[in-house]
Task: inverse folding
């Protein structure tokens, strides 16, 4: 069992017990700003899916999104910016 620089061995064992993990399982913990954490984990999910050949070639799944986020707050600009919305995207 590996421990990060912010987690003690006892905490690591408690987390593994809570998630009922077995040898060979992977538990990822990430902290930081919400959107940045989601982006990092989403990128990791896609990378692992490609490496493990979990994405079938030539197969499309239709998805209809009804509640696009309209704006997001930019920490750098301290302002609201368009956010992946079909009517505000630039």
Result:
């Amino acid at each position: 069992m590996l421990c990060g620089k912010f987690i003690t061995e006892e905490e690591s064992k408690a987390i593994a017990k809570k998630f009922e993990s077995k040898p060979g399982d992977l538990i990822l913990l990430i902290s930081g700003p919400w959107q940045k954490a989601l982006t990092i984990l989403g990128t990791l999910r896609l990378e692992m899916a490609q490496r493990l050949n979990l994405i079938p070639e030539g197969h499309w799944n239709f998805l209809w999104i009804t509640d696009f986020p309209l704006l997001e707050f930019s920490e750098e600009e301290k302002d609201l910016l368009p956010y992946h919305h079909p009517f505000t995207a630039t």
Q: What stands out?
A: The two ends are 46 Å apart (CA to CA).
